[in-house]
Amino acid sequence: MTAEQVIAAASVVSALAIIVLIWQAVLSRMQVRVAQEEARAAQEQIRIGQEQARAAQEQIRVAQEQVLAAQEQIRVAQGQAREQIAEARDDHERSRREKAVDLLLEWAKSAEEAGADARRFWEILSEDQMRKLYHFKDDDAEPEIRVDLTHKSLLTRALSTYPGPKPGFKEVSSRLVLDRDAALYIRWNFIKYVNLTEAVVSAWIHNIADRKMIHEQFKFFYGESGYKLVSNFTKATENACPSMAAFVAQMYRKSAEERQRAAEEYNIKSDIEYGKMGIRGLSNGPEVFPNRNTRT
Length: 296
Hints:
rod-shaped; disordered C terminus; about 300 residues; 3 strands
């Protein structure tokens, strides 16, 4: 190979090398451009993601404000509901008190002194006497209601407004015997009293009137005499006054529980006092607490 051929071959090789370098440079620039475009695309995606995140945060903020607004509405509604319930309760209680007042006024107007005295007279009657007097009719013979002479003043008061011949009873063998018409009069007064009282107490049974006011008005039913009267009358009349019977039973039970609590309180106080004095045996309590236990 001649020198000229060698030079020509070297020129070709150099040209090829230059072409390769140029191609590599072109490829590098193309790769840089692609990488830049991908970077820009990635940045755009990041920007879009950031905008979406901001939008989501705005939605969350709006939702939180809506939740707070809803909670405030609920709070206001609950307050209004409580006020309405309180007003309704107050109206209901006021209505019950007004109903109790109306019933008791009507009872007080109609249950005159004669009715109260008739009730006191019925308290001294036995169950059998109550049965006779309750079932006594206009065309029946005399009911033969006899009571002790010691009840003369009571019987006189019960017959104070009796329109018939006074006194309305006679003394027979140291006993007071009711005249026929006087017996009808006392029966009528007491039945009227019972019917009025039954009407009032039925409102207590069904809780449509103020119970406390009715309790206070009919305290005389709390004791032994009131319980015995209604108990005997219920038996004698085959439960002619169911509301009164239920009322008196509960009031008497309540009264007995209060007496028992008072007795227990007395026992505790007594134990403390006697313990301070160093005395083991306890004497019986006062007569108001007859059921007090005695310990040694």
